[in-house]
Amino acid sequence: MSSTNALPPVIAIDGPSASGKGTVAQRVAGLLGYHYLDSGALYRLVAVAAKRAGVAWDDEPALAPIAASLEARFDGDEIYLNDALVTAAVRSEEAGAGASKVAVWPAVRAGLLARQKAFRLAPGLVADGRDMATVVFPDANLKIFLTADVVTRAERRHKQLIAKGMSANITILLQDLQVRDERDSQRSEAPLRKTNDAILLDTTHLTIEAAVEFVMARYKVVTKVP
Ligand code: DC
Hints:
- 39% of the residues are buried.
- The chain has a single domain, classed as Rossmann fold (3-Layer(aba) Sandwich).
- The chain has helices spanning 21-32, 39-52, 60-68, 87-91, 93-102, 106-117, 132-136, 150-163, 170-186, 208-223, and strands at residues 10-14, 35-38, 72-75, 78-81, 84-85, 125-129, 142-147, 199-202.
- α2 packs across α6 (106-117) and α8 crosses α9 (170-186).
- It is an alpha/beta fold.
- The longest helix is centred in the C-terminal third of the chain and has 17 residues, at 170-186.
- Helix content is 50%, strand content 15%.
- It starts with 9 loop residues before the first strand and ends with a helix.
- Bound molecules: 2'-deoxycytidine-5'-monophosphate.
- 2'-deoxycytidine-5'-monophosphate binds next to α2, α5 and α9.
- Residues 17, 39-40, 43-44, 96, 99-100, 103, 129-131, 180, 184 line the site of 2'-deoxycytidine-5'-monophosphate (DC).
């Protein structure tokens, strides 16, 4: 960065559910020694916190203060809400569906905005979500739109759940992904979309390692590191 008061660099990785963007973002952050923002986890936390408070996922006025005052803490892979461990609840399919529902509300998105921007700390940040490049970090140094065919994504999610010892039905997973894709990309506020300056990375036929290498190579070009 040339100027002394320049903000730390950001790599924005946006894409649909189960595309692998979280894994890729986390690995790139690890390789660079950068911070990592899993913005989807914040929307999932709002859905979990709302459910625990008896607030419906379509009650925008009641969801707004929950989003704005979320007492959440990330510690490695673990997630805490009001000091209670909620990792499994946050990672559940139910929380994913709830997150997609609460995320349509402008007041919820506004309530989470400053919290997301606060992750931009030295030496840099890798942020993944749906609107990292469009809304939260429009000045990101590198923007990646990471996607994969929906059937491939359903198969990957199925494998993950089975590996965790959970039961999963691929037909239902596929339907759920299609519903979420539709809602996340058709909503009026901050819909999932690729910006013109984002690089498309289709991982349908790529390993995670290859996707990570691709992002690292593009970042080296941007930062002019040899
Ligand atoms: O990435 P994920 O599956 O954990 O995200 C869960 C939901 O949260 C997703 O379906 C839509 C919403 N979301 C969002 O609207 N904006 C983001 N930046 C991240 C997630």
